[in-house]
Design goal:
35% of the residues lie in helices and 15% in strands. The protein has 9 helices and 9 strands. The structure holds phosphoric acid mono(formamide)ester.
């Protein structure tokens, strides 16, 4: 049994193996249709979600297992004051594996310390979102043919966006060059920049989106995370800071692909959706294959 808290929980070899498994699952879905027969996945979502919860559930159903869970703290006994530690002790009696999303950083880690089943961190506050990263890696690998030596441009809310924190750490294995495009208020936290400095991984910071993206292999757009702002006026100041438009893509590489963890608010204009460089909806589909692979691995199944 193992947990998934952070993308660094997986070595490079394990990441490669996970990508190969996701690829095999995508190519041969029937081969895995009974892999989790008799097993149950609990989805414990204390925060809203569309993709992460439903794609974990689709993934378990595709593997022949079943699902149970709650989709908001209000509909669980957390609303009566039950702790995460007590909840997970009980869920461990009902299910074989669980995926947890929580607004507090470290909540999934607390759960893992009290669980007797594997815990998958499905997003903890502004900290980490490792299953999103696995599907991002799979999407990058599928579109670029490699994870090595890529120019990764991250745009938007780099302070509160947990997906970029997790992706930065996972890509650090593969000799990337990073470009961070954000307003000052939402820049990449110092801890992640120090992480890159220690590994001698280059990164460049920009405040403008136009004109700097032509070298990008991956343009990773993010939403400004309204729910993490203590002051709504601060959110209002930065909410429309970058809007990617089709006209901005003219000088970009033919092989460049635009990723976004979704949901989108208005940071990608809808006129981009029909551009062949827009990959965010296929990226969401990749989440099902990747989460099948994650469930398979964290349950310790062999393939
Ligand atoms: N990408 C992502 O985490 O989407 P949801 O919030 O809909 O799960």
């Amino acid at each position: 049994m193992r947990h998934l808290m952070n993308p660094l929980d997986f070595s490079v070899e394990e990441l490669d193996n996970l990508m190969d498994l996701a690829k095999d699952i995508e190519a041969n879905p029937k081969k895995y249709a009974h892999a989790c027969e008799g097993k149950k996945l609990a989805t414990l979502f204390y925060e809203p979600s569309t993709r992460t919860r439903l794609s974990h559930e689709a993934a378990m159903i595709n593997l022949g297992g079943s699902v149970l869970g709650f989709s908001s703290a209000d509909s669980s006994s957390a609303s009566k004051g039950e702790s995460v530690a007590d909840t997970i002790r009980v869920i461990s009696c009902f299910a074989d594996i669980c995926a947890m999303r929580h607004p507090k950083e470290g909540a999934a880690m607390v759960a893992s310390q009290h669980a007797t089943i594997p815990v998958i961190n499905a997003g903890d506050g502004a900290n980490q979102h490792p299953t999103q990263t696995m599907l991002d890696l799979y999407s990058i690998y599928k579109t670029q043919g490699t994870l090595e030596n890529l120019n990764i441009f991250m745009v938007g809310d780099l302070k509160y966006g947990r997906t970029v924190h997790s992706l930065l750490q996972a890509m650090s294995h593969f000799n990337p060059t990073f470009h961070f495009i954000s307003p000052k208020e939402l820049e990449m936290p110092q801890a992640y920049k120090l992480f890159l400095d220690k590994l001698h991984i280059p990164y460049y910071e920009h405040s403008e989106l136009d004109d700097v993206i032509n070298d990008a292999d991956i343009l990773y757009m993010t939403r400004v995370q309204r729910e993490r702002f203590a002051d709504p006026l601060e959110y209002e100041k930065v909410k429309n800071v970058y809007i990617l438009k089709n006209s901005m893509l003219a000088g970009t590489k033919d092989t460049m692909r635009i990723l976004h963890p979704l949901p989108r608010v208005n940071e990608i204009d809808e006129d981009v959706d029909d551009n062949k460089k827009a990959y965010y909806f296929q990226q969401a589909l990749n989440g099902v294959f990747t989460r099948q692979a994650i469930i398979f691995k964290t349950l310790g199944l062999k393939w």
